[in-house]
Amino acid sequence: MASPPSPADKPAGNNVAEFTVSELSNAVKRALEDGFGHVRLRGEVSGYRGPHASGHCYFSLKDDKAKIDAVIWRSAWSRLKIKPEEGMEVIATGRISSFPGSSKYQIVIEALEPAGLGALMAQLEERKRRFAAEGLFADERKRPLPYLPKVVGIVTSPTGAVIRDMLHGFRERFPTRVVVWPVRVQGETSAAEVANAVRGFNAIQPGGPIPRPDVLIVARGGGSLEDLWGFNDEMVVRAVAASTIPVISAVGHETDWTLIDLVADARAPTPTKAAEWAVPKHSDLLDQTGKLGLRLTVAIRRMLEAQRRDLKSAERGLPRVEDLVAAPRQRLDHVAHRLDGALRTRVQRNHTRFLQVAGRLPSPRSLVAHHRQRIDATGNRLGRALFANTQAHHTRHARISARLRPAPISLRIERCSERLDTLTRRIERALAATLAQRRNALDGNAKLLGTLGYHSVLARGFALVRDAGGATVRSAVTVTPGQSLEIEFSDGRIAAEAKGPAAAAEPSKPLEKPAAAPAKPSAKDQGSLF
């Protein structure tokens, strides 16, 4: 608790200590937490709306006379075995605290359990009524179990006695392929694991590396209502209801029941019985196959006997083959006799008609002579037309050639010749001017080369020194004693050998009018002499 203020700060005539709102709220908070600590509180859940967006859960606990706020932090929510529901009576374990922001005290719940068996049964009945209203328990939704499943999927614990009993039942009755999805069948995570196992089996695609089961068995041994509570969870019920594979529920003993028993396609009293329902007994199959085979043999024999009797009866009612063929054979002979006379009459009639038509037709010779006369007349007409056409074209060509004269053509040729001569003279003059211009430029460049070249400098008394490799020696420092040199004058070259460094020469007097420095020579190996 905060220390009281000093007497100097107290108002006159008042010795009560003053607190700020925060100091008082924090003091009340510490008093509640120190005075109560952990408590077990029994009450009914009120105002439950599920976890907040932050993951925390806020609601109230009440009875017939009082009400207290409750909060479950996100870290404690994931560890709860029983999740709160509206109207559920629970026993909450936690610590009493307060929230200074609203000056209210509350219980921070760390564990939650139902308030006795009656509360669990009430919650179970409420879920049962709700699922029944949705139609999840309707008989129309139940699917028949496959008669001979190739693969059986089992959702159970891999370490319990249930899976051993079921596998033993499969071996005794009808060996089949079994795929086990291991889950916890008791505890906080059992409901989520069972629901995920049912969904996982339904998600397997046919023809994949893991075979898709033809029937599912959800199995667990017996236990109390709290032990079997995971199979009453809503997610398990809805996963079984949404399964496209038929599901057999084998949870608990025959007297036990859970919500999964009501929504499954079949409910077996024990896990061993579920294995017997999933596959038939091998000996029963053999007996039934033998009986069916015997019945099939007897039925086929009776059918053959009946058909044989019917065939014999029908055979007795049929006439003989000779009687059936006699009448058609007689009709055939009569028709053949009539056909011979009809053919003779037809030929005679056609011959008479041909003679009548032939008398009216002209002879082929007269037709040929007539067509020959027509061809000769057409040829004569064609020759006269060709001669007339030739004469007309000849007259037209003569008339056109009479109008043609050579004078215009000669005049045009003369004009073109004059123009050609003019162009020739212009080309010759342009070529002569271009050659003269190029010759003058070449002479100028030659004079400039003679002026700027080093040979003109050699003619004035200078010399060019080269080493044995032909490189120009520009400084005496680069010459070593005994080095072979070549000295070029204006009239020739001589070989020389360096003896040693010469005495320092006096600087020459500058000329009164020094010559301008020539441009850098264009030769690649030519150095400057100035």
List the helices and strands and how they pair.
Elements: H1 21-36, E1 38-46, E2 57-62, E3 67-72, H2 74-77, E4 89-99, E5 104-114, H3 117-134, E6 151-156, H4 161-173, E7 177-182, H5 190-203, E8 215-220, H6 234-241, E9 247-251, H7 259-263, E10 266-267, H8 271-278, H9 282-317, H10 321-360, H11 364-403, H12 407-452, H13 454-459, E11 464-467, E12 484-489, E13 492-497
Parallel strand pairs: 3-5, 6-7, 6-8, 8-9, 9-10
Antiparallel strand pairs: 1-2, 1-4, 2-3, 4-5, 11-12, 12-13
Describe this structure in words.
With 530 residues, the chain is an alpha/beta fold. Among the domains are: 105 residues, OB fold (Dihydrolipoamide Acetyltransferase, E2P); 158 residues, Succinyl-CoA synthetase domains (Rossmann fold, 3-Layer(aba) Sandwich); 44 residues, no CATH class. The protein is 48% helix and 16% strand. The strands form three sheets. The protein has a five-stranded mixed β-barrel. A five-stranded parallel β-sheet has the order 7-6-8-9-10, sandwiched between helices. A hairpin with a 4-residue loop joins strand 4 and strand 5. Helix 4 runs parallel beside helix 8 and helix 5 runs parallel beside helix 6. The longest helix has 46 residues. The protein is flat, with a radius of gyration of 66 Å. The chain starts with 20 loop residues before the first helix and ends in a 33-residue tail after the last strand. The N terminus and C terminus are likely disordered.
